[in-house]
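Thread: quick sanity check before group meeting

JM: Hey all, I'm pulling together slides for Thursday and realized we never actually wrote out the predicted structure for the chain we discussed last week. Dropping the sequence here so it's in one place. If anyone has concerns about the input, flag it before I start.
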Amino acid sequence: MRRRDFLALTGAGLALLGMGACAQEEASFPEGWLWSAANTLDGSHQLQSARLGSNIAVSTTLPVRAHAAAMRPGGKHVIAVSRRPGTQCFVADVASGEILHTLESPTGRHYLGHGVFDVQGRFFFATENSYDESPLPDLTPRDSVIGIYDANQDYERIGELPTYGVGAHEVVLAADGKTLIIANGGIYTHPSRPREKLNLDSMQPSLAYVDIDDGSLLDKQSLGDSQLSIRHLAYSASGTVVVGCQHAGTPTSAAPLLYTHNVGDTLRPLQGSEATWEQFDSYIASVAIHHQTGRVAATSPNGGLVGFWELTDGAFLGSQKITDCAGIAVADDCFVVTTGLGEIAAVDAYDLSSRGTRTSDNTRWDNHCLVVPAPVA
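JM (edit): ok, ran it. Output follows.
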């Protein structure tokens, strides 16, 4: 059963889960705590934390399916952002998993799955769709917004910023702490037709840099293929952005799905032959950068593999087959990959060898994950 096969289930509660039998190829699984949205075999939606390399997992039941999670600086709160067209985000206590606050999107807005905190952890910035709520809605595409939530005021929504594009998905914070980098996927949807792509013929995906204080547009880049949706981002220590894409239409050839960008430059594709890109089946789910090695990893559940590249010159280093993989994060000297089959796999960032897998019998990880050192008491 894959993650997309789960249906909504209401309810709230806290439970302890044990990881199932493990197939561990090496005795050197990385340390850390993984957070991710997940589902269980009975169809319930979860926010879970699993200790890497052990049998411990804490799971909090959510009333709706979440997409990605964000950690508040200081390590005491984690936010699960609901999947499009969800209207709630859930703030959990990192140590216990207890839901402390539930964020609600305002009228004419819904969440698009991702968000990021500022450096101080005061404000949370969430990508949101803007749409007509009338009974017979106008389905003309509208630009997305970034909703601003004040963590010091119980996460009250205090305003919004423009994204300068349609279908904003992932947002990350630049090293200067003053710039939001936004993946405008270009795809417009409406809650009345929630999974339908309403503007395939007029898509304009873009990568936008927006001032965190006044919302001014600092830079904007686009690709030649208007149906190549810019979806996911990773930010390197050197300031290079890695962009992961998904093709919304029917591509005529297997084009690159990963690009790098530096301010003042254009988007540059990472390397790979047409046969290489064919393996990814037009879909990148998550991107991560291992800063010590300068290597990029990207998952493709459609292709059932993780690919690896050098950030500096874009060289393709190879791939590893991992069925239904989607989430990816960095833990110590490894990339950590989660799957819709309940696996957590570790890949050595230096030699790209497998460092083992662990499987939960009752967990099906959702699209994204993050890894942190440990809960803060």
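AS: nice. The longest strand covers residues 363-372. Confidence is low (pLDDT under 50) at residues 1-26.
JM: adding both to the slides.
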